[in-house]
Amino acid sequence: MQRRDDTERTAPTERPRPAWYFSEYTPVGVDLGSRDAVTAYDRNQGTDPEADDALLDRLGVTEGTRLVDLACGTGSLAVQAARRGAVAHGVDVSEEMLAFARARARESGVAPHWHHAGFLDYAHRAPLADVVTTKSALHQLPDFWKQEALLRAAGMLRPGGTFYLWDVIYSFEPSDAQGRLQHWIDTAGRPEGQGFLKADFETHVRDEFSTYAWIIEGMLRRAGFDLVSRAFPRTTHAEFHCRRR
Ligand SMILES: C[S@@+](CC[C@H](N)C(=O)[O-])C[C@H]1O[C@@H](n2cnc3c(N)ncnc32)[C@H](O)[C@@H]1O
């Protein structure tokens, strides 16, 4: 198939998939793939290139660093990485998201490598990465497939390389779940036109696959990562900074 400008065809992966393999090109839950949703995404999500820069500083991304951002969305992190001279790859299942990311890169005068591919079928054909990131997206996969995605992320990193995960990940006690989730939904929702709606957070909890931090930690270790640090700024969100063994 002819690709639009610089998007690289990296899916399907090297092996044919069995019939039972997870279908990742029709994400569940809140619509993020339609043109309207993509246009509103940065406002709703609070995308902030300065925050992305601060993260890149923390991860030691400098000129020449090879970085892969899985589920890159509108591409801010990959673009900011490319602006500091990193060899940046942005991977996403949504053509609409990639079109937006490509336009952002053009405006910034940089050219990350864009890949229309998913966690489960992105084939990293470039040299092994120094840093792999994924923000606000791993919850799109059920837990069995999260483990598969983390194994694949480890496989594209050099030994000693950095893996960074940020997502809706629960750190409350399971017995507190109902109250904690209801509080999050009630306080995070914004009025129409100002951010994600209360109904979007309800959809997230009901239809997407966010899970507990202790499950994610076990998966990270089994994927071949050591934990460098972890943070739970809210009981509904977590970050894990890991090193590939
Ligand atoms: C909430 S957005 C996060 C985007 C970006 N990482 C950020 O921090 O703003 C989730 C993204 O994951 C993408 N996505 C969903 N399922 C995916 C999968 N299996 N593989 C790769 N990307 C996926 C969606 O298209 C969307 O761009």
UniProtKB/TrEMBL annotation:
Keywords: Methyltransferase, Transferase. Signal peptide: none annotated. The keyword Methyltransferase applies. It comes from Streptomyces johnsoniae. PANTHER family: TRANS-ACONITATE 2-METHYLTRANSFERASE, TRANS-ACONITATE 2-METHYLTRANSFERASE-RELATED. It comes from the Bacteria. Residues 68-161 form the Methyltransferase domain. Pfam families: Methyltransf_25. Its EC number is 2.1.-.-. GO terms for biological process: methylation. This is Class I SAM-dependent methyltransferase. Coiled coil: none annotated. InterPro entries: Methyltransf_25 (IPR041698), SAM-dependent_MTases_sf (IPR029063). It is an enzyme of class 2 (transferase). GO terms for molecular function: methyltransferase activity.
